[in-house]
Amino acid sequence: MPLIPEExxxxxxxxxxxxxxxxxxxxxTPRPVPxxxxxxPPRPGRPGPLRPAPPAQRTGVAGPKPGPAGxxxxxxxxxxxxxxxxxxxxxxxxxxxxxxxLDAAEEAVDLLLxxxxxxxxxxxxxxxxxxxxxxxxxxxGEASYWAQHDAxxxxxxxxAAVADRAASRPVVVVAxxxxxxxxxxxxxxxxxTRAGALLIVCGDPQxxxxxxxxxx
Length: 216
Description:
6 helices, two-stranded antiparallel sheet
């Protein structure tokens, strides 16, 4: 169903500073997301914290063998309970013109990191000009570029044309910063399938609603 660009909020957090798009109007920019999380590691080029080793597996202590047990009344109810369905990610719309969508996406990423999101939790997709970081990293070759994606230790930026190669992440940010309507119509539903908890879309509300309203 269509999204109404109200005072946008990214759930589980307070309203953030307001951003001024290229048109001169003051547009609200939400302060994202979830509560306390591990401290965010540094941005590109710096190693993140080591992942803690998994706890050792516990071994049981042998004891007397129990006698035959009667039927468990909870077993039948557990068997009849319906399987839980995966949660649908929340969708957050940040209104912005095409030439200001990338700036709005960058601000959303900064607010996510300030709120405690790990950089490796965030994927950014662009529909028009690629993000400067992606263009720079691709100049060293695709192997190096995708190796950084697989490392999952930083924010990853991908053009819509190759975003289908990107793995799911808890938060996906889409900058509708140009490109054809067909590109947006492909990129937005794809981004929705890649977002584990939150999808943030920065761009023209009418265009975004026409795509997401038909595809969601």
